Structure prediction request, 177 residues.
Amino acid sequence: MAAKALSFDVGDYVVYPKHGVGRVIELQKQEIAGTSLELYVLRFEKERMTLRVPTNKAESVGMRKLSSDKTMREAMETLKGKPKVKRTMWSRRAQEYEAKINSGDLVSIAEVTRDLFRADDQPEQSYSERQIFEAACSRLARELAAMEEIDEPKAQEKILEILRAAAAIYNKEKPAA
Prediction:
C-alpha cells in the first residue's frame, strides 16, 4: 500500500469540506467485503454526526488539517472587503455560494459570508439568503473557534464585529437617496 500523504491523529481537528470542522475520535480497522480498511472516525458535534472516512480516501475527498494562521488572516481580511453582489438570478448565485461553502476553502467561505451579510440598517434578506449566510458564517466560526481555542459563539461574534465595521464603511459610500 502506498504511503499516506495525509495523516491525522486521534484528537486532531480536521476539516471535511461538506461538513466543516470535526475531530478525529478514533482510528479503526474494519473488514468490508473481504478487504481490510483503515478508517478515520470523525465526530461533528454541531450536527451530532459521526463519519467514517477510509484513510486512503482522506485526501481525495478534500479532508484537511485546520487552516494555517496565514489562511485565517487572509479570510479575516476578505471579510473586511467590499461585498460583491452579482446581478445574476438568485438560484444561480445560491448554487455558487453552496459550492464555495462545500469546497472547504476558508477564503471562499469568507467571501460568501461577506457577500451575504446584512447590517441592521440594510434591507431584510430572503429566507434562503439567510440560511446560506448562516451556514457560511457557522463554518467559518467553527474553524476560527478550533484554531483560537474559543467557543463557536465567541468566534461568530468576532466575525460579525468585522462584518459590521466593514458594512459601516461601505454603506457610507452610497449617496443618500
